[in-house]
Design a protein that fits this description.
By secondary structure, the protein is of the alpha/beta class. The chain has helices spanning 13-26, 42-52, 70-78, 95-98, 114-126, 152-157, 163-169, 186-201, 210-218, 224-239, 251-260, 285-303, 308-314, 319-328, 343-347, 358-370; strands at 32-35, 60-64, 103-107, 128-129, 138-139, 143-148, 172-175, 204-205, 241-242, 338-340, 374-376. The protein binds adenosine-5'-triphosphate and magnesium ion (MG).
Length: 392
Amino acid sequence: MLAYRSSLVGESLAIQNILNTIEKVAQTDSTVLITGESGTGKELVARAIHERSTRKDKPLVVINCGAIPAELLEAELFGHMKGAFTGATQNRVGRFEMAQGGTLFLDEVGELPLQLQVKLLRVLQTRQFEPVGSSKTVEVDVRIVAATNRDLEAAVQQKEFRDDLYYRLNVIPMRVPALRERKSDIPMLISHFLQQFNQLTGHAVEAPAGEIMEALMVYDWPGNVRELENLMERLVILKGHGTVDLGDLPHRVFQKFVEARPAAAGAVSDWDYPRMALPEKGLDLKAIVDAFENHLVDQALARTQGNKNRASELLQMNRTTLVEKLRKRGMIIPVGKKTTLMAQAAQAAAGAYAGATPAEVGSVMAQASDSDLSIHADTEAARSDRAPEVTN
Ligand SMILES: Nc1ncnc2c1ncn2[C@@H]1O[C@H](COP(=O)(O)OP(=O)(O)OP(=O)(O)O)[C@@H](O)[C@H]1O
Ligand SMILES: [Mg+2]
């Protein structure tokens, strides 16, 4: 991860509300409980509260309650005396005392073990505690900001979190919405991250536009702003300069984009074709393109009951080109011969393949070629423009 300090970026109403709330709560010492999914920016909000408060020149101490083993957490929070437990070779101040005069950010507070919840409750009520192994009460002036991505109300219902502590923490609740709930922030966040990473690396990746931006807007971002930030870092490092292509996007982003496009209607733009993502291991492009072409040709023949003039018009190609394609596939053979042909495709209604990927089309075509349906021969010379007739 390239390192830099970010401020809260965003223009959605949700972010504007959060910025307003930060301004108001920063002027107080009230306890704040920040909730939101992982990667939404809870820590950034906590930092912003501290930095805008009168405590900004005092420490902001962060402790992740979920990352420290339960048996060490008490000493970590409240400090310990020399000899209080094995390995306590000297007195040590805890995070509460380190934050004296400043702010203590209790991250992942939902993970706090029940026995520590009681002790924390008392500090919130009295601003007093005793370090582990000490009978001397320590008094602190610390502002508490807590965060969690857990549903604390549900945890209270399940008796995993004390309700009295929950109400003490939840004096000022702040919910940071998921990025999918404020997609209007995405373009601004992208510009912001690209600018930061370009500056840090000396690279020059341009802000995406058009279909790329559309794809980034359609995606749901389950990892929220962190996922978006990581993708921008990756693009800047791997791409180096220039514009981002659809092929640079992770498979999951591309896939979502492809799924969200409206169904084919008239085949005018690149994206009105049946869509498939390029498999990781690659594919046989010629075979796929041939299968796709055959699929459309067969639909045109089916729709025009085998009239090659009208089918070629539908496909916007010369009749001779169409005939040549059919000849190559063995669908036009000398008069008098009868053969097993891919008649299933000609017989199929146009809708039968609608929405199929080229791979699916290929497999249907392969089955068709094995079918025992046969058609009468047609010749270009005869110019009958009749459908290849199915005789059995
Ligand atoms: N609005 C924003 N503007 C700029 N950067 C943001 C914004 N929101 C989040 N970020 C960035 O996204 C990353 C994740 O944010 P943060 O660590 O604050 O999320 P979190 O909610 O605490 O996540 P977790 O629950 O996983 O701890 C950070 O690098 C942060 O700088
Ligand atoms: Mg966090």
